[in-house]
From TrEMBL:
Signal peptide: 1-20
GO BP annotations, alphabetical order: proteolysis
Alphabetized GO MF terms: serine-type endopeptidase activity
Keywords of this entry: Disulfide bond, Membrane, Signal, Transmembrane, Transmembrane helix, Virulence
Pfam families the record matches: Trypsin
Entries under PANTHER family matching the protein: AT26814P-RELATED, POLYSERASE-RELATED
TM stretches of this protein: 326-344
Occurrences of domain Peptidase S1 (ranges): 34-283
Protein name, UniProt field: Tryptase beta-2
Family designation: Belongs to the peptidase S1 family.
Gene3D superfamilies associated with the record: Trypsin-like serine proteases (2.40.10.10)
Length: 377
């Protein structure tokens, strides 16, 4: 069994607070190698993020990274998030390429329904990291269509884990630049049929949830694959012209049996299944301008006001406004007004609505004191 984020290999953390959702750290056997791949074209995947070579992820908003749920660092060491790391040509992480951006992780939110079936198998395998600043790179698009990727479709997988184990020593060779490999999407039935007579207890039957998992194969003998240090790296539908603005993330590297196992395909977390949670979490965590978060439905603060005025008594009505407060005052003169106001104050971070349906105003008293009503707190 292979671990995608083995605890002993993932002694990385962040100088920050983690949310309650990320309280469970998982010793999961997941994917850490790009096997049978090749060097990615420099600059082709600027939204790719790596965490000190112990996992991968993607930039989905200026200060938000999406990765696998089992990549959930402990809190004993800081970890650097490196974006646009594909030009890295050295295993010395003290050296930072000119175009690379580095951040720390300030918060982690794990999918609330994340769980493990066994020590090497996870379900609802999604994590969101908030980072310590805003990346200048353009975030990648996420797939919302539950029918993608199609059976038989080719997806690109990228990562900076180990490339291959030495056949004599089984020591893995670390990648010094971003690796890329093309894999084929298998149908749900094909994946569930995976079986090795020598390992009957590892059969996939009943373990693959079609709505939240995508299986991939690297050829007739599954000679190409992703493995442990590639956990959380993306499965991508790419355009023929290699236009990164058209890249679409359909999955995240999650779990499987041995690397490039000839019997068992790789299992990946399907992004479309988690989009409602991703939308809500990004809107709650991100400090980016809401105009940069429209994909996630993060609303601007809005205010609507309807006023109905009736000539009922000899008083005038006038309105005073100041930031965060509206004052309506009546003074002797011509009209008494009845205000019917609906105030919708959508908070970008929570989506909470505050509605005030009816606010009748009173006339000034004999001393001319003007009553006021706060409609926004």
């Amino acid at each position: 069994m292979k671990l995608i984020c083995i605890f002993l290999l993932c002694l990385w953390s962040f100088s920050a607070v983690t949310s309650a959702e990320s309280s469970s750290h998982v010793d999961a056997s997941h994917r850490s190698l790009i096997i049978g791949g090749h060097n990615a074209q420099p600059g082709r995947y600027p939204y790719f993020a790596t965490f000190d070579h112990f996992g991968g992820g993607i930039l989905i908003a200026p200060d938000i990274i999406l990765t696998a749920g089992h990549c959930n660092p402990p809190l004993d060491q800081p970890v650097k998030v490196r974006i646009n790391h594909d030009k890295f040509q050295s295993t010395d992480f003290a050296k930072e390429p000119e175009d690379e951006e580095t951040f720390s992780i300030v918060k982690i939110v794990q999918h609330p329904d994340f769980y493990t079936i066994s020590w090497d198998e996870t379900v609802n395998d999604y994590n969101i990291f908030k980072i310590s600043g805003f990346s200048k790179e353009t975030p990648v698009k996420l797939n919302r269509d539950a029918t993608l990727a199609l059976d038989g479709q080719i997806v690109a997988v990228i990562g900076m884990g180990s490339m291959k184990p030495d056949p004599a020593t089984f020591v893995e060779t670390s990648a010094t630049t971003l690796q890329e490999v093309d894999l084929t999407v298998l149908s749900h039935d094909q994946c569930e049929e995976a079986f090795d007579p020598a390992r009957p207890d590892q059969a996939y039957k009943g373990r693959i949830f079609e709505d939240r998992m995508i299986c991939t194969s690297g050829g007739p003998h599954n000679e190409k694959d992703a493995c442990a240090f590639d956990s959380g790296s993306p499965l991508l539908l790419t355009s023929d012209n290699s236009n990164q603005s058209e890249d679409l993330v359909v999955g995240l590297v999650s779990w499987g049996e041995e690397c490039a196992d000839p019997f068992f395909p790789a299992v990946n977390a399907r992004v479309s299944f988690a989009m409602k949670w991703i939308d809500e979490t990004v809107c709650a965590l991100s400090d980016a301008d809401p105009s940069l978060l429209t994909e996630f439905g993060c609303a601007h603060e809005t205010l609507s006001l309807t006023v109905v005025v009736a000539k009922l008594a000899p008083w005038n009505l006038f309105q005073q406004q100041s930031p965060g407060r509206m004052s309506f005052s009546a003074v002797p003169g011509m009209l008494l007004a009845i205000i019917v106001a609906t105030v919708v104050h959508r908070r970008r971070n929570t989506g909470r609505r505050v509605t005030i349906e009816e606010l009748p105003l009173q006339a000034a008293d004999a001393d001319g004191v003007r009553p006021s009503y706060d409609t926004l707190q």
